[in-house]
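Lecture 7, part B: from sequences to assemblies.

Below are the input chains for today's worked example.
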Amino acid sequence: MMRRVPQLLVLLTALSTRANAQLLSVSGNPGALNVVGATPGSNPNSVSNASTTYTVTVIFRAKIAVSINSAMPSGLTLSVTLAAPPSAVSQGAIALSTTAQDAVKGIPLGTVLSTRGVTYVLSATAAAGVVASTTRTVTLTLLPDP
Amino acid sequence: MRLSVIAAGLTSALLWSQAVSAQSATQVVTFSVSAISVMSVSGNPAAMNITTATPGSAPTPVTDASTSYALTTNETNKKIVANIDANMPAGLTLQVNLQAVTGATSAGNVALTTTAADVVNNVNTVAQSGRTITYTLSATTAAGVVSSSTRTVTLTVVAGP
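Predicted structure of the full complex, as structure tokens:
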């Protein structure tokens, strides 16, 4: 039995290296978020998209941080909510900025190919004005969770 | 044996740690905000009945300030215009006065006709409600007795001058 332990660990190591690219993945890009209406007297109605998912596999306790590649236009807020794998904790809606923020914490050891939803919400104030179609790249990063 | 187990474990941990720390995935989010200009009113004002006069003067006007409007626009250089669906009877004047939203300018008392007239100017991006609408009904003595009648007042957000 004791002889098999190092063999198992070496096997895990080899698998981990080969599986590197599949520890965190997303299903694709969400559809365009277009703010088109408002209740008179209130800011424009927010719009959401929950059409995509992420899949995560971890061996160490981990967390997922989120950020965007450039700041949002003034008066616009793009939020993301990542549903948590079993026993992990979602941090709820995160207003995205260029600074990485934790979206899911405490992803436990042994989480394998757990697929969960990604929900985006776009909110605008009236002062934001009319905004032509533009894009932001959202980065989800898997990190050790101390 | 124990050393080999520890070594293999540390190697595995190191590689896993590197793998975990390097992992990321990206999504491209496309978004836009369309031009939005919407307006609503709180309801209809109460009936306005001219019932008296100061001797020697025209009948005393009556007012109603019980209703309000709400406006959201994410556009600039807009205005609010008002009109009625049919002209007033001879000798009767119905005026409307809209309290301006923040940053805009009220035109004050505006006599309503079937032609749209400016009532609030210089409207820019704003989301505000509870702005007072004041109606004033005036009559000359020549108007005579007028039975109960109605007019539909339309407020519209349009591009400014």
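Note for the exam: The first helix of chain A runs from residue 4 to 18. Keep this in mind when comparing with the next example.
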